[in-house]
């Protein structure tokens, strides 16, 4: 069942199955079509995100277990809400071996384990390496209760191998505990990116598919789950084959894949899915509100960095260092290691899909020739899997923290080299858009929230003014590393007001991901101390000045926020609202964007908006009102949201309007609000309407005048209340 919309919830200790049931009535009142939840299967004890599944056969005990899950299902069904869940077919959590019965058995029994083939392990190179030691020493190993112990880490002892010292027992096992620094170059099991505590599973094996999907497929068959979000399909050996097997097992489910597409890339046509999770649409919507005229000013401020060269350099570094173990595994298939390192960074997108006939993005070379000759072979799948890892770690997780020209563009699925999206490109893409694909503006994986990006977009209209501020602020209290310094000033403006602790945590992550002056594995104590002290210093010395500047652009940021939200919610696709973002939300990358949400406040604001039309102010009530109005329209009148045709204005400020018509619905939004104000406002800019049309955002309120527009109408009249409008055909 395809939902009218979804609302993404991050489940965890503060949002269990019971908590979701308690807010389900609020979500229904908001107009949501389905709850869209992070993974719900049993995860590593203490997990805050659920992506480290340890037992895929049961509902998470930490979230309330099976009984609580069924109570939630009953509540959602009573409210006619669907349930979409996030599943993780690529890997399982192994940080706590006793919690994962399959992994524990593999450690205990090696290749003879019933689960040895479940994990993607290269047994030919020797015992299974487990990189948990702080050094090369085994002195801290002990035997406790018939298990090997390394501080808090527990490992099994194979039958018949006990006796002697802990070190002697260790040498008899099917695994070897090794220095954690050896993982990147020597690991012999595939992992999720460079995370050694997430071990890849061989879901391409029908037995493994059945074992890992039995519970989820049962829930779908029982109509307890209506849709699935497939996490990281690029990590699979053959995503197309997996998705076809999943579709056959769940023919009625709404399936969307977390596939990060290049700007000009499309999903393989052979994948039987309803679409993506929406990063491709995020790029388009955000780009509409960025002024391309600001590019030169920001390029100059950043020192004219070479994005293409930086991406290639960082991808090669990742292949040579972080993922050397994966490169060596490919080389064991008969390919020279240096050739693999040269080949992987040249993928222009995350990966090719040679087995599905999608090889246009495959770099040239002998490796490519071998892949094309054996599209279903191991070499092909391992190269493609590793290419996706190289892209993710080299670009998304490194370059996007270094190339800081204009960080509103440094987003998952976006291209920082494309400074904004022309309205014509947006309309062309929308005319081809799939109605069943998800659209989004914020997710648990975005680098910054939609409202941060909306405010940053305002800066593209005033590049010289912002550059002057950055130079003055830097002279007073700058960071010594230039790229982090530029990122920091944009971050503090985009997320203002921000606490010292939040800014400190973000800059620690950003500086270490960038790997310029410090990193997670090779710390620079002096620089780390500088970064840690910077937020307190800046807030004390420049807080008032920053606040004054943000106050000057805040209203324009709100205009952009409402504009991109209207576009996202009304455009073709199934819109997703990330938890809490129905109000203003100025969150940064996780874990900042996983903070608890005050649903009681939102419930109260929604009730008040039923009685009084909210103004645009710091409460964010106007955004919540607009979100609710459009979601309810989608729920009650789905026929309105079909078809697509651009709407254009005429007059002096025509370029500041973006809009489109659906089937009896028109969505309109303001672009580049500062430039609009500088040019004298809308003046006699008009839109031609064949009516009657009623603005659904303002109709129904005492004293409001929604006007039955049935003529050529002034845009200033349409936007008398809000800088956006959602017109529905018919009288008020």
TrEMBL record:
Gene3D superfamilies: Glycosidases, Maltooligosyl trehalose synthase, domain 2, Maltooligosyl trehalose synthase, domain 3, Maltooligosyl trehalose synthase, domain 4. Residues 3-634 form the Glycosyl hydrolase family 13 catalytic domain. InterPro entries: GH, GH13_cat_dom, Maltooligo_trehalose_synth_4, Trehalose_TreY. It holds the Pfam family Alpha-amylase. This is Malto-oligosyltrehalose synthase.
């Amino acid at each position: 069942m395809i939902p009218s919309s979804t609302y993404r919830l991050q489940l965890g200790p503060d949002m269990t199955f019971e908590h979701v049931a308690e807010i389900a009535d609020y979500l229904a009142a908001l107009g949501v079509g389905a709850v869209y939840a992070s993974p719900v299967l049993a995860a590593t004890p203490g997990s805050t995100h659920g992506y480290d599944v340890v037992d895929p056969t049961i509902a998470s005990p930490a979230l309330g277990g099976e009984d609580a899950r069924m109570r939630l299902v009953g509540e959602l069904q009573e409210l006619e809400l669907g349930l979409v869940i996030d599943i993780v077919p690529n890997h399982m959590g192994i940080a706590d071996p006793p919690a994962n019965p399959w992994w524990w058995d593999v450690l205990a029994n090696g290749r003879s384990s019933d689960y040895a083939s479940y994990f993607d392990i290269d047994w030919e190179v020797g015992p299974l390496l487990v990189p948990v030691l702080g050094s090369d020493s085994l002195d801290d190993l002990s035997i406790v209760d018939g298990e090997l112990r390394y501080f808090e880490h527990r490992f099994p002892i194979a039958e018949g191998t006990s006796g002697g010292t802990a070190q002697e027992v260790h040498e008899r096992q099917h695994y070897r505990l090794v220095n954690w620094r050896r993982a990147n170059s020597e690991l012999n099991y595939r992992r999720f990116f460079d995370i050694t505590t997430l071990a890849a599973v061989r879901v391409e094996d029908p037995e493994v598919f059945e074992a890992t999907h039995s519970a989820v497929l049962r829930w779908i068959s029982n109509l307890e789950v209506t849709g699935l979000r497939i996490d990281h399909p690029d990590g699979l050996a053959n995503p197309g084959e997996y998705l076809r097997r999943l579709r056959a097992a769940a023919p009625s489910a709404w399936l969307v894949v977390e596939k990060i597409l290049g700007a000009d890339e499309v999903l393989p046509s052979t994948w039987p899915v309803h679409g993506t999770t929406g990063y491709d649409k995020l790029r388009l919507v955000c780009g509409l509100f960025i002024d391309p005229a600001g590019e030169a000013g920001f390029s100059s401020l950043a020192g004219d960095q070479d994005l293409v060269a930086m991406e290639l350099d960082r991808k090669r570094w990742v292949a040579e260092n972080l993922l050397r173990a994966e490169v060596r595994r490919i080389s064991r298939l008969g390919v020279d290691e240096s050739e693999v390192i040269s080949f992987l960074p040249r993928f222009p997108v995350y990966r090719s899909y040679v087995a599905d006939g999608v090889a246009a993005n495959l770099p040239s070379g002998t490796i490519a020739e071998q892949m094309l000759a054996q599209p279903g072979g191991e070499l092909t799948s391992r190269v493609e899997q590793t290419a996706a890892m190289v892209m993710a770690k080299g670009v998304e997780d490194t370059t996007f923290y270094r190339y800081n020209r204009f960080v509103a563009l440094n987003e998952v699925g976006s291209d920082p080299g494309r400074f904004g999206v022309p309205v014509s490109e947006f309309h062309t893409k929308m005319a081809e858009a799939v109605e069943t694909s998800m659209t989004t503006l914020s997710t648990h994986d975005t680098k910054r929230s939609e409202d941060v990006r909306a405010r940053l977009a305002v800066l593209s209209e005033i590049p010289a003014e912002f550059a002057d501020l950055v130079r003055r602020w830097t002279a007073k209290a700058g960071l010594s590393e230039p790229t982090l310094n530029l990122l920091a000033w944009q971050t503090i403006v985009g997320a203002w007001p921000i606490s010292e602790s939040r800014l400190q945590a973000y800059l620690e992550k950003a500086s270490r991901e960038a790997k310029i002056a410090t990193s997670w594995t090779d710390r620079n104590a002096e620089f780390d101390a500088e970064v840690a002290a910077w937020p307190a210093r800046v807030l004390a010395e420049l807080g008032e000045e920053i606040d004054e500047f943000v106050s000057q652009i805040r209203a324009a940021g709100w205009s952009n926020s409402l504009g991109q939200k209207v576009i996202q919610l009304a455009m073709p696709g199934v819109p997703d609202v990330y938890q809490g973002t129905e109000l203003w939300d100025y969150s940064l990358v996780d874990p900042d964007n996983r903070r608890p949400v005050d649903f009681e406040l939102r419930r109260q604001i929604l009730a008040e908006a039923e009685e009084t039309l909210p103004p645009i102010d710091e409460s964010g009530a106007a955004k919540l009102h607009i979100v609710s109005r459009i979601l309810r329209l989608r729920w009650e009148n789905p026929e309105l949201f079909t078809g697509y045709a651009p709407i254009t204005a005429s007059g002096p400020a025509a370029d500041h309007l973006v809009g489109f018509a659906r089937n009896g619905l028109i969505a309109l939004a303001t672009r580049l609000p500062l430039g609009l104000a500088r040019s004298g406002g809308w003046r006699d800019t008009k839109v031609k309407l064949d009516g009657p049309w009623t603005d659904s955002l303002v109709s129904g309120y005492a004293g409001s005048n929604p006007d039955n527009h049935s003529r050529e109408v002034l845009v200033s009249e349409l936007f008398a209340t809000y800088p956006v409008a959602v017109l529905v055909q018919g009288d008020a």
